[in-house]
Amino acid sequence: MNRVVITGLGVVAPGAVGTGPFWSLLTSGSTATRGITLFDALPHRSRVAAEVDFQAQAYGFSLSDTERLDRVTQFALVSAREAVADSGLDDAGDPLRIGVSMGSAIGCTTGLATQYALLSDCGTAWDVNYTQAADYLYDYFVPSSLAAEVARDCGAQGPVGLVSSGCTSGLDAIGHGMDLVRDGSADVVIAGGAEAPISPISMACFDRMRITSSRNDEPETASRPYDRTRDGFVLGEGAAVVVLEELEHARRRGAHVYAELSGFAAFSSAHHMTGLRPGGAEMAATIRAALNQARLNPVDVDYINAHGAGTKLNDRHETHAFKASLGDHARRIPVSSIKSMIGHALGAAGALDVVASALAVQHDTVPPTANLHEPDPTCDLDYTPLFAREQRTSTVLSVASGFGGFHSAAVLTRPRLRVAA
What we know:
By secondary structure, this protein is an alpha/beta fold. It contains 13 helices and 16 strands.
């Protein structure tokens, strides 16, 4: 079985475009949440979000590009280009051995909503005027266009696909890319997640469920996972891409290795669209399976990059799952949620977490959970409040949960000499 390593990173995140600025933001404990500016959010219950300050022309997109490509696709392309350049993939070999695996929960929602408003005269006409449709409306309609654009841009002619499993999409796409390299279907997979959900229809969905924060007067501190005063998550956007590569392939070309992707697993609770079973059994099973695949024990975990959405149910569920899967060691491991700083980017969130996890291994630093001033007594683990922590970080557990009962976990390790399975 092939070993899989991460040789390139790329990020578009609220408050930080680029891997360097992203890591600086996380380790500073700064927050990028604010009042929504992308549309008039006054009618909405929740009017806060974590937006990316993004000028497409500054990243090489022409006017025709910006008209053709949805915001989410622009995010994906910028992060993929950074990851590919970071990995030095220009001379990586046969394009038929390079794949793409992208994740997105809602795809090109922004472009689709804009086109619908245009074709229906802002919703007043039941029969839309298709003759006014953009030539690329189909691209907005089909989420797989996101992966296809990345493949074309990178020249990847191997396996290409899109994973859409809600909020675990980005992590699941990376897990799928890992499988492609492990089983020999590809030497290299460009994998990650992208999302641009800050739109009226998306905000209305979460308003209806009352799971987003209504702390509209305090947008900078509205995202507060594990805090007793939390009142829901803050919607975010962005993209993150990693270059996954077979270890010997990376060694032969002298690539820098950030971390080894040693284990991945995904389970479902098969319980409820938004509810979670008490006790966290399914997430605990996911964590144990990922550790087993990595051939590691709970005591080997140095840091947990948590889902940490900031809802009361999810935060408590995660806490139970960590205790159930890791035993007494759960109380000795620092845990944190970067969603406290960059919001919850839905299908991109897990990919952003993987990049943060790889950087934690690279820099021996645990990013903090911002805004954690009053810990919830039921979330009684070490959730690394307010300040980053320098410590030896050789093994990171990164987890994600999603509506529908999806639970995923990945294990990243410092590259080490071990016998391949």
